Amino acid sequence: MILITGGAGYIGSHVARDLLDRGYEVAILDNLSTGHLDAVDKRATFIFGDMGDLHLLDQVFKRLPIHAVMHFSANCLVGESVKLPLKYYENNVGKSINLLNKMIEYNIQHLIFSSTCATYGIPTESLLTEDLPTDPINPYGHSKRMIEMILKDLFQVYGLNFVILRYFNVGGAHVSGEIGEDHNPETHLIPNVLKHLQGKTKYIEIYGDNYPTPDGTCIRDYIHVSDLSNAHIFALEYLGRNQHCTEIFNLGSEAGYSVLEVVKASEEIANKQALIRYQERRPGDPPILVASSDKAKKLLGWTPKLKLEQIIQSAWNWHQKHPDGFNK
Ligand SMILES: NC(=O)c1ccc[n+]([C@@H]2O[C@H](COP(=O)([O-])OP(=O)(O)OC[C@H]3O[C@@H](n4cnc5c(N)ncnc54)[C@H](O)[C@@H]3O)[C@@H](O)[C@H]2O)c1
Ligand SMILES: O=c1ccn([C@@H]2O[C@H](COP(=O)(O)OP(=O)(O)O[C@H]3O[C@H](CO)[C@H](O)[C@H](O)[C@H]3O)[C@@H](O)[C@H]2O)c(=O)[nH]1
């Protein structure tokens, strides 16, 4: 059985569903702080609670035949992390340490950890490979990098096998249209643009038009949540095949799109024009982040299949079908 922390959240719920579809048994631990009960697949065993709760973790590991953990639960907003760093260190680092302590106590040997391209900081290369130095520029990125470092130490002492997946910008929704991205407040670009195009906001704010990029707006590498989910299954299989595993993989589609390009692609899909308001740069935003996913292709045998248009189209379908997210 796979334990998914944060399985009621955006990415965790997609991975849970894909694992269940492939016949894996899944348990989900989530405190529903940003997740949704309606995103939890009925086939999974759901445990409502906090991943830092040592007593609850004892019960979970004692009662359920967990053999691997996929650790998604975290706070994950760059801007908020700059304003509330301790919230990020407490939840993403402190509580993850509790989870790791219990994994070691109960001899759970396999972990897949959700990390981020925010660990790279402001890169000097145009395509980011896993061996580049990390130097996060916001507390969110620091909190993720800290866990990455802790994992290396735990491997040395306890032999904890892990795969670290550094996601780039995740978007899109499940092909069924039944689960998708629903954050409140929403800070991510694609859902914000689509909500605006649905008439829910008067304009879309673009944070900064003076970055060193061709159109002055930030460039990111967008990856479809279903492609990302597949990578987790490949990573789980990889962990099963390889003893002494301490690999890090970047997960992106190796294509960079500016904020303005995302707005334009969304306008075409929604067949509507967006009203843009330029704002100051958002603190903690690096100008360009684009993945090299060469290593994941070679070692995991994974390739992302869906492009920006398909990411936006599936997100648009989700927003059209669920204009109020999981509340409807
Ligand atoms: N969305 C992205 O573009 C992106 C990119 C890179 C990395 N990530 C990472 O992927 C993971 C999932 O991100 P997401 O977008 O699905 O976020 P999300 O907010 O939708 O999901 C996080 C889930 O974790 C739960 N949670 C948070 N703290 C908890 C705690 N203490 N105990 C139990 N449950 C808790 C929340 O209720 C939520 O269901 C995070 O670790 C994030 O840092 C996301
Ligand atoms: O309304 C918006 C929202 C975003 N942006 C811009 O769009 C780009 C993308 O912003 P997102 O908030 O969608 O995502 P981030 O680039 O901040 O993503 C970061 O946070 C994510 C989690 O929230 C992941 O961890 C990811 O790896 C990490 O780089 C940024 O330049 C941002 O300034 C806008 O201009 N207007």
TrEMBL record:
It catalyses: UDP-alpha-D-glucose = UDP-alpha-D-galactose. Residues 2-252 form the NAD-dependent epimerase/dehydratase domain. GO terms for molecular function: UDP-glucose 4-epimerase activity. Belongs to the NAD(P)-dependent epimerase/dehydratase family. NCBIfam families: galE. Homodimer. PANTHER family: UDP-ARABINOSE 4-EPIMERASE 1, UDP-GLUCOSE 4-EPIMERASE. GO terms for biological process: galactose catabolic process via UDP-galactose, Leloir pathway. Its EC number is 5.1.3.2. Gene3D superfamilies: NAD(P)-binding Rossmann-like Domain, UDP-galactose 4-epimerase, domain 1. InterPro entries: Epimerase_deHydtase, NAD(P)-bd_dom_sf, UDP_G4E. Its cofactor is NAD(+). Pathway: Carbohydrate metabolism; galactose metabolism. It comes from Mesobacillus campisalis. This is UDP-glucose 4-epimerase. It is an enzyme of class 5 (isomerase).
